[in-house]
Fold this protein.
Amino acid sequence: MGEILDLLARDAPPGDFESLLRRAGELPLGPDRTNRLRHAVRTALDIRATTERQRRRESALAALVDTGRDIFRHKGLDERLDVVTRHARRLLGLDMAYVSLRIADGGSYVHNSDGDTTALNVGLEMDRGRGLGELAQDRSAPYWTADYLADGSFPHTEEIDRVVRSEGLHAVLAVPMSSGGRMVGALYGASRAVRHFTPDEVSLLRLLADLSAPAIEATRRMDGVRSELARALAESTRLDEELAAARRLAEAQTTLSGMCLEGRSLHDIVRYAASALGGDLAVRDAAGRVLAGTGEPPRADAASMVRGIADSRAGAAAVRLADDLWAAHVTTGVEGPGLLICRTGEAFGDERRRLLHFTAQTVATVLLRHDLATAAGPIRDDYLDDLLSGTTGAPRHLAERAHRLGLDPAADHVMVVLRPEGKQGEAAIWASSYAYRHAGLKTVRRECLVLLLPGSDPSAAARSAVDELTALLGHAVSAGAAGPVHGFASADTAYAEAVRCLDTLIAIGGRGGVAAAGDLGFLGLLVSDDHDVEAFVASAIGPVLDYDRQRSTDLAGTLDAYFSNGGSPSRAALELHVHTNTVARRLERITDLLGADWQRPATALEIQLALRLQRAREAVRRP
């Protein structure tokens, strides 16, 4: 007995106990003692087996604790399932382990696998009630087979059998994975040899499944929450983008509507719309002619034009003509239908399509307005021609005709004569539009455009017209202006003065410039009908005269002496009986009043003429 206990204490292998029995059988112990010895050895072996099982259980439980820690060290679902399948293989000495997860509408699919040799396993879907995992989940109990393909005790499917055959599997064990009464999936262990799983092995895999299921379910729920949050954020971003797009569209539509109401030209509207759309625009009539455009106006063949007009009218929306061409129909109501074409390399979303369609409607309104103005144009042209020729008849008839044309004869008007320094191009059409937009009149004389416009500043009116026409034609435009006129009876006189101003401007090399009588200096006295000497003197030396009146000085006399003595301060000082420094200080004051350029030849000439005119006026007024 002592030797048996010693073998137990040394954890001797079972063979040592068998060797002890053989040696005892060689001794003359007698039947009774031999039986007691055999019973003691069997008991010792049972104790040893129980101890071994307990040791393995403790080792397995320790491994499960490590597995749990390893699971919770990872956050993602794939990482956690990798830990589960890897530890399942190690705990049970398996060739392969994998996890299937439940699908919401029934069945399950293989999500992770460890030890597989083909790509057939992961992603494999299993119908409800088919396969060991489905049986284990339906019964909430483990299910295993020693030889899968040879076992007909459960339903087979061709897809699962093909994977089992490809992987060379025989023994398969499946245990359910549940959390809080909700089935999550199944954990599988498989061997490539026929194997009968022991209750301890089944229990161990079940413990691993129970340990990992809550973490896996929590991860899936968290992933679901993250997915929903991402979808919500994406939806919020989409709504924000749609709101921003709607605001941009509303702003652009408001701007286009305002430009239309302000009477802005077709070219202005097309330029703004092209900037808002991020591309080049062209307004083409039914014949394909460009009415307005930006950059290099987009082109389209006749068939595309017809198709674009028809499709856009049918759908009341912009349509695609080609990969980078979009179009919307333009109907003026007078001429045939046209097309607004946009070429852009950017994505042409719903916002841009709506803006292109709205722009086409705005263009149609502008063209219709222009058609109406053109229809009334000959009558208005005839009226201005009559004014310029002096054949207007009685003042009462003059006023009546003005009122019928929507004009106010009592308001101030200015006369502008425009001469393009190159091809006329669309100048006459532009003049009709410009006069209509500014509530004025236009005609053409001596190859010049004549405009009668409301206002009191002829130079400003001429400059505005020149700037717009120059941009349209692409070359210089010169202009003469006169006015303001009070009543239309003196329009012919204002026209004659504006022509003289224009001719004078051209004669002195001012092509591309603008001039009214007040802009020509002393030459304005020659071309002006009223010969406003006082205005000329004020424009040339007015600040000096004002300074003398306010300070009781004689800077004008100093200027006169300075010019009389050839621009010599010292000789001017002798004439004025003052020190040279005094003259120098006075000249500095004059520079402050007239500007640094007052001694330039052209300006000095006007100053000297103004000084002489001022002396003459004073002599005439002197009693």
Notes: The longest strand covers residues 182-191. DSSP finds 20 helices and 16 strands in the chain. Residues 199-261 form the longest helix (63 residues). Residues 533-621 form one domain.
